[in-house]
Every structure is written in structure tokens, then in C-alpha cells.
Amino acid sequence: MAQSSLSARKTSVELLERICTNGEYSSEVIQAELQKSNLSQKDKSLVLELVNGTLRWQGQLDWILSQYFHGNFEKSPHMLKRILEVSLYQIRFLDKVPEYAAVSEGVQIAKNAGGQRWGKLVNAVLRNYQRSSNSIKFPTVESDPVLAISIRHSHPKWLVQRWLERYGLERTIQFCEHNNRRHEITLRTNLKKISRQSLLKELEASGIQAQPSKYFDDFIKISKPQELTKLRLFKEGFFAIQDESTALATQLLALKDGDTVLDMCAAPGGKTCHIAQLVGGEGKVTAVDIKSNRLNLLKENATRLGVKSIQALVGNAAEIDLPKVDKILLDAPCSGLGVLSKRADLRWKRKQHDILNIRKIQKKLLKNAARLLKQKGTLVYSTCTLEPEENEELIEEFLKEHAEFRIGLDSESLHKTFSTPKGYWTSVPYEHKMDGVFAVKLIKSN
Predict the structure, then answer these.
(1) Quick one: pLDDT at residue 1?
(2) Of 91, 104, 207, 336, which residue has the fewest beta carbons closer than 10 angstroms?
(3) Phi-psi region of 146 (alpha: psi -120 to 50; beta: other; left: phi over 0)
């Protein structure tokens, strides 16, 4: 048994325990752990695969394990569940991992964590699965569509029910299938330092397969995951790692040289830096965020990209008082249900009532944004979710309470595939191959 691969699997189990039981977020805990780890690069890649893959398929894995587990699987010790999930994920979804390695290392980790009894139990469950996996009978769409999609595509039942009512069967499955694929990485070219064509050539010379975005002139798609942050091109600020859906909000602002802009809820600063580049040296961007450690990330990004016109402020954007500005970006905290392909743990952490709770915060932020905007100014509201309560319904309520605002329909710079007749802009993950986001441009009258 290779000691390094055992360490990678043990690390994966421990990370999953922190994410699933302690409530930590995968986007924060995985990279932080790997940066200080002594694992080889190959084993770090294995950890990423095991943690993200297990989180993505956890619903299906748990349903299968409950068929083979003698007793109540749901009430079994958390660590034992994580060991079984990681082991089964390898057997069921990874072609390059030998099944004997997944079983033997799962058994060893179980022995170390819970003694011989855990080791025998893990061995029995996994061996039984190997012997009879072809005879598993999943629920059918005809008999129970919510349960069938929930298990087949590993999404919580409340979310499947919600999407079925709104999108119907075919589109709901398309959303789920997209969320279970490995996501693509996109880069935004820093046009102040290099053209997109030149960056594409530089990436190709570095052995990275890349292609231009279909929708936005400065974005690039990367075909395979790479350690992009180690490239000279990244360290010298030639690009930012940023989903291309973020361009919807920044382009709706229609920025020009010299604009004063407030970016509420700004960290970690991908959109802030883009805005600062678009308003030029004469412009000014005030970036507000409630978390000082996340503002430090924004400052690091700005320094790397060579952006100097950003003033970062720690504060609650729902209450902060500042001089009025020409334009505001309110990239509001949201349920995040449009980014489930990247944030696999969110589908299990989020509950239906979270949507209405987050909406209350969004409403307060919008109210303060309206107060801080100059007359004839532009307010762009955006989220990374497609849930109506956080988007269209919230904006309709806002417009009823703020007669001085109207929706701006003049957005010629944007690709029309994202627009709706009412002036809302959305990207659909399975259709546009990017995060699912919402954005709207609101104009304040005299």
C-alpha cells in the first residue's frame, strides 16, 4: 500500500468531515489545507478529486450505502460515513483507481479511526456492493420523479421539487447534470497589460490548452484544470481567474473613464478590479465588504493586476454612509444555487428557508444602494443564483417602493442570448456553459 495515497485518502476523509459536520465551506478549507500540506502534487490532485467528487455525488452515495449498511446508516458515526462515502466514490466513479486500493485503504483508515470493528464493517459494505452493484434498483421517474432525480443526480429533494415546478422535467435534469460535471476554468485577460490573442499564444507556449470565450472579448476558457496561479503570467497580473458570467454585471454598468463607482459586498474583488480597469486612472472605485480578511484578498488581487484606483473599506454595506456616486454594483450575498457545479457542498448546506432569509438582507442592501446613488446614476444588482425570490420578484418589489428607479434596457454591449424581455439578464449554466447568474440595470431619475 503506498503511504502517500493512503495519506491523500485520509486527508480527504478529514476534509469532508470538516465540511459536512463542522460546517466549513469547501471553497475555503480545501485550498487552505492543501497549501500547507506536504503531499505530492499528484496526491493533492487526488484529494481535490475525492473531496469534490464525493460532495457532488454524496446524495447518491448515501442512498446506496444505506442499502448495504446493516443498521441505520444515517445515525452511524460521521467519520465512518465519510470513510464509506470516499471509498464508494472511488469504486463507482473513478476508472483510474483500482477497486482493491479503494477498499483496502478505506479499511485501513477505518481501523485507524475506529478499531477492528470499523475495519470489518467497511470491508463488508464495500465487498457487498462490489458483488451486487449491477442489481441496484433506483427509483423511477414514472413512480416518483422528485425522489428519482434526487438520487440519480444527487441533489436534495426540496431543490428538485422546486426546480420541477418551475422548469419541468427535462430542464431540471439538465440543471442537475450540469452541476455534476467538472467545471471549466475561465480567465479574464488584463487588457491593460496584454491582448487576449497574445495571452492565448503565451498560454499555448506554456502547454495550456485554451480558447477564446464565445461571448466576451476578454475572456478565455481553459480545457483542463491547471495550476494557473504558479504561472509567471498570473504572478505578473496578465490575467485574473474569473468566471465569464461575471462580465454580465460589469458590462451592464457601461463604465467610462472618470466614473466614481461603489462596489458593495466587493470581496474577493474580481469584479472590483475589472471595474477599476474600466474607469481608468481618473476614475475612483470604493470597495466595501464586511469581512476584513476577504478585503485583504481584494488588495492582493489589485496589486497583482496593477490596479491603483481602489479604496477598500471594511463595513456593513446595508448601513454604511458614503458620498453619492455615479454608479453602484451590488453583487449581493445570495443562496449561490447558480454555482453548484463549483460549490458542490452548497447543495447540501442550503435549505429552502435560507432563500427568504437571504432575501431580507438583499432588500436592505438595495435600499441603501438607492440612497447612495446620484441622480441619473446606474445601479446594477446581481446574484449568482437564478431563484426568483432573490432576483425578479425582489426587483419588482423594489421598483414599487422606489418610483425614482426604472430598469435600463439599453445594453448593446452585451450578448443578447442572456437578455429577457423585461430587461433582466441571466446566464443558464447548462446552456451557456458558465455559472448561473442574474443581473439587472436600474436607472435613477432626477
Answers:
(1) 44
(2) 207
(3) alpha
Contact indicator for 363, 421 with CB cutoff of 8 Å = no
Spatial separation of the C-alpha atoms in residues 81 and 253, rounded to whole Å: 47
Residue from 92, 43, 88, 40 nearest 62 by CA: 88
Mean pLDDT of the chain: 94
| Grid cell at residue 201 | 499564444
* Cα dihedral 278→244→357→408 (10° resolution): 50
Instruction: Look up cell 438583499; give the residue.
Output: 362
- Judge whether 384 counts as a catalytic residue: yes
8 Å CB contact between 440 and 423: yes
Query: If phi over 0 gives left and psi between -120 and 50 gives alpha, with beta otherwise, what is residue 16?
Result: alpha
Q: Which residues have CB under 8 Å from 401's CB, separation 6+?
A: none
Angle in degrees, CA 137, 141, 145, rounded to 5: 115
The residues, ordered by sequence, that sit 6+ positions from 124 with a Cβ below 8 Å of its Cβ are none
Residue 122 DSSP code: H
CA gap 241, 229 in Å, rounded: 9
pLDDT tens for 362-414 read 999 999 999 999 999 999 999 999 999 999 999 999 999 999 999 998 777 78
| Whole-number Å distance between alpha carbons of 86 and 61 | 9
pLDDT tens-digit readout, 285-302? 999 999 998 899 999 999
Q: pLDDT digit string (tens) for 89-139?
A: 999 999 988 999 999 999 999 999 999 999 999 999 999 999 999 999 999
C-alpha cell at 124: 463488508
Alpha carbons 201 and 221: distance in angstroms, whole number: 13
Q: Sign of dihedral through CA atoms 429, 406, 316, 269?
A: positive
Query: What are the φ and ψ backbone dihedral angles of 255, each rounded to 5 degrees?
Result: -75, 150
Q: Is the full-model pTM beyond 0.90?
A: yes
3 pLDDT band, cuts 50/70/90, is: low
Secondary structure of residue 279 in the 3-state scheme: helix
- 8-state DSSP, 419: B
